[in-house]
Amino acid sequence: AQSVAQPEDQVNVAEGNPLTVKCTYSVSGNPYLFWYVQYPNRGLQFLLKYITGDNLVKGSYGFEAEFNKSQTSFHLKKPSALVSDSALYFCAVRVSGNMLTFGGGTRLMVKP
Amino acid sequence: DAGVIQSPRHEVTEMGQEVTLRCKPISGHDYLFWYRQTMMRGLELLIYFNNNVPIDDSGMPEDRFSAKMPNASFSTLKIQPSEPRDSAVYFCASSGTGRGTRYYNEQFFGPGTRLTVL
Predict the structure, then answer these.
(1) Which of B89, B105, B108 to mutate to test the interface with A (most CBs of A within 10 A)?
(2) Cα-only R_g, chain A
């Protein structure tokens, strides 16, 4: 079965420092992988996706993610964190059709 | 497009009452998903539709929950009777299968309905 795991419930980083939010996946076949962000009292917003092509995917708000097939990972990264990046981040994988299964979420706290 | 529209945004009701949540997907999208989010259980998929047909309702907690999609522009999630443990934020999301667009496979979420059952 297709699944993703987010091993960290929370990530703390200082403003201006690089950030990484981890995601590992388990799929049969080629993975379609996604990152979403949820700000307080809002629905999830799409950040970026990997389907095929370059292993480094660039998305919204300066975020990028690196697809690593050998490590079955799809970590979300940003070179310089902003306080406004503080939110809940979800990794997801396509199961079938347009159905996605989401990870448990990682809360990112960026401190000034 | 206004995005996915959900109503009401907040609902407070008493145990035993019927609750109906509504969703209008993005025009042209052929998939619609209902999710529930709580602190304890995270984000759970309840049911999803493709071309107005329910495809997978294995996430629906019990018979008290039902969902319908009478046409491509409207869906409801009903809880009858409601219980305090149903308190959560309920999200509707839609997505399209237009391969010619950059939005293939992406789900677009509504703002959610915060349900409180007293």
Answers:
(1) B105
(2) 13
B15-63 residue pLDDT tens: 999 999 999 999 989 999 999 999 888 999 999 999 999 999 999 988 9
Query: Buried (b) or exposed (e) across A23-60, using 16+ Cβ within 10 A?
Result: bbbebeeebbbbbbbbeeeebbebbbbbeeeeeebebe
- In the block, tokens 């993703």 appear at A4
Instruction: Quick: pLDDT tens for A21-47.
Output: 999 999 888 889 999 999 998 999 999
Element (H, E) at A45: strand A44-50
**Residues B111, A42: C-beta atoms closer than 8 Å:** yes
Q: Distance (Å, rounded) from C-alpha B29 to C-alpha B27?
A: 6
Residue A25 near residue A3, CB atoms below 8 Å:
yes
